[in-house]
Amino acid sequence: MSAKPRIFVTQPVAESAIKRLKALGRVTVFPDDSRIIPHAKLAAAVCKADILFCLLHDKIDRAVIKANPKLRHIAAQSITPSNIDVATAIALGIPVSCVPPVTTEATADLAFALILAVARRMVEGDRLVRAGKFPGGQSRHLLGASVHGKTLGLIGGGGLIGKAVARRAQGFSMRTLYWTPRRKPESEEREAGLTFVPLDQLLHESDFVSLHSPLNAQTRHQVGARELGLMKKTAFIINTARGPIIDEAALIRALKAKKIAGAGLDVFEYEPKVSAELKKMKNVVLEPHLGSATVEVREAMANIVVDNIEALLTGRVPPNCVNPQVLAGKS
Asked: What is the total count of domains within the chain?
């Protein structure tokens, strides 16, 4: 009988998934969930593995993959393989799998949480109370912006997450505009309470601009100095999509010049590095990429990764394989 495959997991994941993995192979987990595994340690671990179970934030570049050209599977707990060098994996015949879009509702929750937090200055209030200060229940010390009845603009908002945010906005009686390169059918717009407008109009009229575009060559720096300059001085920008969709340097300049009122950011252009200037700004709420960070969602994601691994080990094409051509003729 052949030895069980060696499976390396780059950070602790749901116990139910680990239990299933241990039935499939010999499992090693990088134990620290407070930090991303260093690149050198990742490459060294891949050398000793047959299967790599990686997370969205892990950079699976050419060097990592070439550390073990005989790797049997790169199984990612991410919706897209944006941090994986799929071309190198294809060249070496290594299948890469992801997970389907199961993060929609959790990410929409966080987007709306950021809207509320930055508008109502909730993080500032929390810090004030912890510092032993209490200005009074009707003090003007932390006056914020209203959310109810305001205009929300969704860039790339015709997708699953954008429409989920729009549904939440209905509960706040918000007028919800959206722009996307390919307009959605009117029936979908009506159901989500969306109004399609040109991008510049959306930027001019919105009190809150929320980003939901996928990251690709066309959307990198989709929001830069020009777009920020079209926004109201009282408007806020929210990003739960991908960091490089905003030109971060332009955002910092706009915030410093008070061209916009503030920002709520779950993602960053140079993640995991976060600009020291952003950290100093009181009108910016910063989160460490928490979009899918609920117990239920992360458990579902981890078990889908195990499903992909189990499929490969039983001679089937993983249901979420992004390069199935490498498995042609192997089953």
From this structure: 2
The Cα 272–Cα 299 span in angstroms is: 23
For 158-181, how does the pLDDT look when each residue is reduced to its tens digit (9 = 90+)? Answer: 899 999 999 999 999 999 999 999
Place of tokens 């239920």: 296
Q: Which residues contact 289 (CB under 8 A, 6 or more apart)?
A: 56, 57, 266, 267, 271
Domain of residue 223: give its range: 104-286
**Residues 160, 220: one domain?**
yes
115/89 same-domain check: no
Catalytic residue IDs: 242, 271, 289
Pairwise CA distance, residues 163 & 309, whole Å: 32
Report which of 219, 225, 212, 218 is spatially closest to residue 178, judged by C-alpha positions. Answer: 212
Degrees to nearest 5, angle at CA 77 with 75 and 79: 110
Query: pLDDT tens digits, residue range 224-276?
Result: 999 999 999 999 999 999 999 999 999 999 999 999 999 999 999 999 999 99
Q: Both 273 and 165 in a single domain?
A: yes
End-to-end CA distance of the chain: 19
Whole-number average pLDDT of the chain: 96
Q: Are 41 and 70 part of one and the same domain? A: yes
- C-alpha to C-alpha distances, 156 to 71, 207, 224, nearest whole angstrom: 36, 17, 15
Q: Are 269 and 222 in contact (CB under 8 A)?
A: no
Per DSSP, what are the bridge partners of residue 60? 84
C-alpha–C-alpha distance, residues 256 and 87, integer Å: 40
Helix 15-24 vs helix 295-313: crossing angle, to nearest 10: 10
Could you check whether the bond before residue 272 is cis, i.e. omega within 30 degrees of 0? yes
- Claim to verify: residue 124 and residue 64 sit in the same structural domain: no
